[in-house]
Amino acid sequence: MDWLSIILWSFISIVSVTFIYFKKKFSYWKDRGVNYVEPTFPLGNLSFRKAHFKDFIINVYQHKNKSPFVGAYILTKPIIIPTSLDLIQNILVKDFSNFHERGGYSNEVDDPLSAHMFSVDGEKWKSLRTKLSPTFTSGKMKFMFPTVVEVANRFNATLADIVKPTGSELEVRDLLARFTTDVIGSCAFGIECNSLKDPNSAFRYYGRKIFEDSPIGPATALLVLQFPDLARKLHVSLLRKEVSDFFMNTVRETIDYREKNNVKRNDFMNFLVQLKNGKSVDDESSKEINKLTMEEIAAQAFLFFAAGFETSSTTMTYSLYELALNPDIQEKARQEIRNILAKHEGELSYEAVQEMTYIDQIISEALRKYPPVVFLTRRAADKYQIPNTKTIIDKGLDTMIPVYCIHHDPEIYPNPEIFDPDRFTPEQIRNRHPMSFLGFGDGPRNCVGLRFGRMQTRIGLITLLQNYRFKSSPKTAIPLIFDPDVGILTPKGGMYLAVEKN
User: Fold this and answer.
1) 193 has binding-site annotation
2) Which class is 32-501 in CATH?
3) Which helix (H) or strand (E) holds 424?
4) C-alpha 430 chain-centroid distance
5) Could you state, in order of their start, the residue ranges of all structural domains in the chain?
6) Which CDD domains does its entry note (predicted)?
7) Where would I find the beta strands (DSSP E) of 274-427?
8) C-alpha span between 64 and 61 (Å, rounded)
9) What is the pLDDT of residue 486?
């Protein structure tokens, strides 16, 4: 047999094996007789066109019918997109014991900051959650409240220097990210980041790099998703080394300084120091617990920083955008702020903020229309029969809960593209399924920092609306376009609004 024949037959064999492999993989849902979206070679239901991942979820969700979920594929990997709110409640809450894993990627050896509470599973997650939950109680929020207000006042002073008497057109997303960076820097690390004064401060610089300068490309991301164990053997890291080194060194230096000088503050870092020394956060006097290592502490501090500054600044960005487009809603919010502050002698106290229910409704509606995290993931720990059906979810199968789609489903929220804070009056909330709003997730693996996130977002919006009016400008994007390169739902090209002083 000549070389040409060998090459030809080898090629035919490879093509045949590949065809049989994909055909077998792509028959998973068909063999089970469930509602699914027909995949295409080789990406499954992913698109070759560059788009935000929410578009993949939307394309699958639109195939929903009376079945509780739609089957789909990411490459050859079968996944579940649940469309029944009852099934979602089972997964997140009622049958959490079988869906406690997110199936996230972490690499504790090469990338210690990736082993934080959001990405780890099993006993490690359970241990971290138990230890860290007491740091986010309403009592702890009251301790941190004055720090957030102090940063908000600095934010107001910075903006006052920027906004001209006749008004200015500003890119507000970066300004808001600088505000939340300084808040998290103070509350998580006890450090004055000075991002408001210096847009290129170290914390703002590395904060940008977390979301805008990933060391992995699309191919590596798919490797991490499909073959996490192989990715760990190949030493794949989700963070650039300079980012990891910065946060590790910052945490280490902060803790060393505090312990040498006996510094105690009512902030997240102080609680982490207690955990490092084996003391429970909710019982400082006597209760001993397993100590956290320096790497574990750094990972949790990194998570608090990354999740806290980006999601809150993004939520405030979308809130201001909608208020600029809906001046009647903006005026109603401003009136509530004036009325309640007058009752509290002009002081922005913890109690005053709690009374501003319309501001909270605006935040909830912004999170509904623009959820920063467009889907939630859960992995089946064992076989699971969906109640009232014969359908079995196999062990190890991943579920992607379509937060964005649920929030935009007209059967759940009539006229979903209309911004209407009155959707979140107590009566409206009671009339909806409890899983109809997933801005912070739900169940035992919901966002542990939701109280803090809401608090800093409220304080930021109240401070801004008390002192400024926001309007659309010639550079305001209508409609919005989302950046496909950023996992969090982010407006492409920033957010330009006209800002006027009172």
Assistant:
1) no
2) mainly alpha
3) none
4) 25
5) 1-27, 32-501
6) CYP6-like
7) 279-280, 283-288, 376-379, 384-385, 392-393, 398-401
8) 6
9) 84
